[in-house]
## 1
Amino acid sequence: MTLFLLLLIIGVAILGTQQLIDKFGFRHLSYSIRFSADTVTEGDQVELIETIISRKLIPLPWVKAELTTDASLLFASAQSAVSKETRFVSSCFCLFPYKKIERHWNVTCTKRGIFSVSHVVLVISDLFGTAEWSTPMPDTTAHLSVLPAVRRLDEIRELPQQFGGELLRQRTVIPDRYAICGIREYADGDSVRDICWSASARTVNPMVWQFQETAAPELTILLNLETKPSDIECVSDHDLYENAIRFCAALLGTAAQTHLPVRLLANTEIDGIPAESRTGSGPDHLIRLLHMLAALPDLISCQFIRLLRRFLAQNQNTPVIVISPFVSDELLRIAAAESRVTVLSLKPLRDMKYPANIRHITLQSERKSIS
């Protein structure tokens, strides 16, 4: 009889607890997540901070939070599972009345990108785990931008000539007298101060200096997403694509150190807008370009050769560095005809003679600070 009464009391307690948790379990219960930093660099560690607060008298003996994020975010704990490109992380809490609990996760960022920890589901249970209740938290999201690491370029014996020296442009309406390219006969409209008196004395007709326009170096980097000739809509070799982005970041870092004005284009779109930047220089511009690289998807919006031809036709004087996973026959023909185009291939070149402006490159694993 005593045993029966004890079991009856336990049963009533369990049912009563379940009724209370079912009715009041998610009331006055708040949950939030955030990263300790909004922006980090590839390879850095960051903290993910979970905060759960109970503002009621009813204790919650068992609360579990289930998070979904990208597999490239490594959590320093065994409480996570990976399925393809998705990581599932779970954490458990025991909440007493009017208590606040914070949990800090150390997260290693192994790949550049724009990531979020979302699809949060809270699960609560009674003391004996005989029943469970769950609710999604659609407004609970933490965002993180992982910039590509800026690495060194020491393995390249000779950087492309666009990284230094003056560039010559065709003459415009107002000549620049700092660049003399020859002597020609005097024509109507020429200034008297441009007359070369020594050459005029040796000829019958007056002769004037001929000038070219000079300009500060300016560079455009074109990034090719196509890793194989068969890539039409999506990148097929993601590792090679990520290496191309890392090398692009290395070039941009070198340009920022030399205060070289640079512009970045890629044959993809970011949020429906072509991936194109403005021309700029310095550390602030580098940060903007690294954010652009972090946001690049693996979708191809147009053929790279079409993008390159259009850019060369619209920009007659701008030198171009092409970062491409491989060198196609069409890209080889364009580089052979355009000396202002330098092609840097991540794949080794075939056993044939290439123009001097086409070369194979490798990248050091060591990172360099972007500051």
## 2
Amino acid sequence: MNQLTIKEPFKVEGKGLHSGQLLTAVFNPAPANSGIKFKRTDVEGQPVIDALAENVVDTTRGTVIGKGDVRVSTIEHAMAAIYSYGIDNCLIEVDGPELPILDGSALQYAEKIEQVGLEELPADKDYYIIKEKTKYKDENGATITIYPDEGFSVEVMVEYNSPVLPNQFAILDDLNLFKPEVASARTFVFVREIEQLLNYGLIRGGDLQNSIVIYDQPVDQEQINQICDAVKVEHMKVDKLGYLNPKPLKWDNEPARHKLMDLIGDLALIGRPIKGRVVAIRPGHTVNNKFARMLRKEVKHTEMQSPVYNPNLNPIIDVNGIKKMLPHRYPFLLIDKVIEIDRKHCVAVKNVTVNEPFFQGHFPEEPVMPGVLQVEAMAQAAGVLVLNFLEDPEKYSTYFLKIDNVKFRQKVVPGNTLLLNVSLMTEIRRGCAVVKGYAFVGEKIVCEAEFMAQIIKNK
């Protein structure tokens, strides 16, 4: 899949949940590989802030990113919508310290994205594939675990021990259902928390239109009146526990769905779309960010992930199919099967055994596969890539024209399984293909190279 951005700019306007200021945020298209960025426009010369987990500077009642003295708060709802629609690149300009809270949900962001539409960019989407279970548990017992999965899904359980807000569960198995199932879930607050939050300088823009307000412990009327004055709403008489909003809950588990939305928005700060299943117990912005930072370290240290290889699956092209396309034969056919292929990339497998004829003369006492043959194996995988979509591939051959930037990182020895991942760096022009290749053993890159090959019709 290609990377995405929005087709044209859109803006949202409203007050900030914590500052109470009237704010305008403009979402702009951005070029490939630029990522999601925020910029304050209320003061000249403000730096652009990358929407990444390591740039989070506060998680008190929202996710705040910063650079130097510059802050942008309450980004999680917008980030959840951006992530759920598969947007990889966007510049968000805001004329104040936070994004507008709107109605407390991500619905307006989803609607705006759908109105302007999405645009494909000339770069591959760079997924981060979860290959093994990863878990984080904080000192308060909140737990987030991610498991390998072919797609992306999230499930959360919230626990508040409240007579009004019981333990709740929410799940999203398909990001295409984000808008109808999650986007309109509103943020929530307990009446017993409001006074303390106000004392911290937070939720000055909160009201019954942008938050679910939960009254689960008796509070005397004088204190309720003071809270109403602080948030500039009319005094109300509260005589029973429950939800104080004029609008009813959209779902019985709306708070859990909102927590799920927050989690998606916080995980979007990993900086790459994820293939994995996330299970969270008692998530919150703090634990969400700690988990995202943990994954982010892996992302930063993994320049290129190895392909997913399941030896139990049938190959897309077996060795007989390869022999129909390539002229190579024993002892120089260096790929055994193809497990992935499309018009831009190919993954082939080479099983290295001690019976390879080159081991007789290449370090026979300590057999090591020659590096040039690793490059040749990548080139044969590239040959399958470019020939596979020709009408009569057996009538053509591919020849090296140039090899650049070759690096050998680790020995390849008998018993290793080489995964050869090759991708077109440009469109095929005038019969020439420019290819980037990586060879993996397990999760480690053992060799990489860039090469140009020419496709020539056989005489």
